[in-house]
């Protein structure tokens, strides 16, 4: 249907999928998530072909609102529905059926276990001070988890053409309107790496454009991740705490736990920097003047934001690295 841009068939398909009130009320959480996924991929297909889904199927509105309420998420499908909550076998839901679309889904899917683990170590980190040996240990564990993002972007570069993404897949991630509000599609840009940034540096060493992007992205996250953001936004970051601790030390000697913490924090920031440098490289190809169909990325932000966040990550990594350079580690 998508290949033929068959709006009539897509409309019939969507309306036939919309469950009645009794069936919707009987869904458990897993069924509600699955229903949102299946309705969303057909609704997103209609929007890709220029039709607001709720204009084509008005009876969908109360169902989306109810499913969002039942799952404590936005009233449309997200990147979680499209990847982690999507079967990996022959029942996989896709817009195009192209192997490159499956590879992109798999690249995102492989990140989530490590992201969950990194949030657990970031939670520990938030309650520690740099003088505690556990501070450096939490940073090293976080670094190991974040490396999955680098592996995912390398996998994407190897298997997904920028032209395919920009001209074929990207149009399916456009927003559509639910109850008077526009909601973005289930794009990989919704993967909340910014939750790791929050604890490491963003909470007190960010910039206005990144802060705005995060504020707009928070609603698309899982309920527990929104709670994580609420709990740590505005709290001292790892970079902030380490900088304050280093400023009190003798210029020539740094206690061993503090030196270890600085090294571990430098490493994880370098890993984030590596991911962002590779991400911006592929994004520039997909959004170059002769390829792109859209000005903004699938997460709703301009490509310039990627450069801004890369610069912020690099600045924080440089700050930590230089703060310890002239010092010697105490025995």
Automatic annotation (TrEMBL):
SUPFAM superfamilies: Indolic compounds 2,3-dioxygenase-like (SSF140959). Pfam families: PrnB. It comes from the Bacteria. GO terms for biological process: L-tryptophan catabolic process to kynurenine. GO terms for molecular function: heme binding; metal ion binding. This is DUF1864 family protein.
């Amino acid at each position: 249907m998508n290949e033929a841009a068959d709006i009539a068939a897509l409309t019939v398909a969507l309306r036939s999928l919309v469950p009645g009130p009794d069936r919707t009320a009987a869904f458990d959480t897993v069924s509600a998530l699955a229903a949102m996924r299946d309705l969303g991929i057909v609704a997103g297909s209609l929007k890709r072909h220029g039709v607001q889904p709720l204009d084509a199927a008005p009876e969908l509105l109360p169902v989306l609102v109810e499913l969002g309420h039942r799952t404590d998420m936005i009233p449309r499908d997200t990147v979680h529905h499209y990847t982690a909550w999507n079967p990996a076998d022959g029942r996989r839901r896709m817009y195009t059926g192209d192997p490159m679309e499956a590879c992109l889904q798999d690249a995102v899917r492989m990140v989530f276990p490590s992201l969950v683990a990194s949030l657990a170590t970031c939670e520990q980190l938030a309650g520690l001070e740099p003088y505690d040996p556990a501070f450096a240990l939490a940073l090293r564990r976080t670094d190991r988890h974040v490396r999955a993002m680098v592996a995912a972007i390398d996998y994407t570069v190897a298997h997904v053409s920028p032209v395919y993404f920009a001209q074929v897949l990207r149009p399916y991630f456009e927003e559509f309107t639910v109850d008077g509000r526009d909601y973005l599609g289930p794009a990989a840009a919704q993967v909340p790496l910014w939750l790791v940034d929050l604890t490491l540096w963003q909470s007190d060493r960010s910039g206005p454009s990144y802060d705005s992007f995060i504020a707009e992205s928070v609603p698309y996250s899982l309920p527990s991740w929104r709670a994580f953001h609420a709990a740590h936004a505005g709290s001292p970051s790892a970079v902030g705490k380490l900088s304050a601790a280093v400023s009190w030390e003798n210029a020539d000697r740094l206690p061993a736990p503090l030196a270890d913490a600085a090294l571990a924090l430098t490493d994880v920031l370098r890993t984030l920097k590596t991911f962002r440098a590779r991400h911006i490289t592929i994004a520039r190809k997909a959004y170059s003047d002769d390829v792109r169909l859209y000005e903004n990325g699938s997460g709703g932000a301009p490509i310039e934001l990627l450069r801004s966040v890369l610069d912020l990550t690099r600045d924080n990594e440089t700050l930590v690295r230089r703060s310890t350079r002239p010092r010697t580690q105490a025995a």
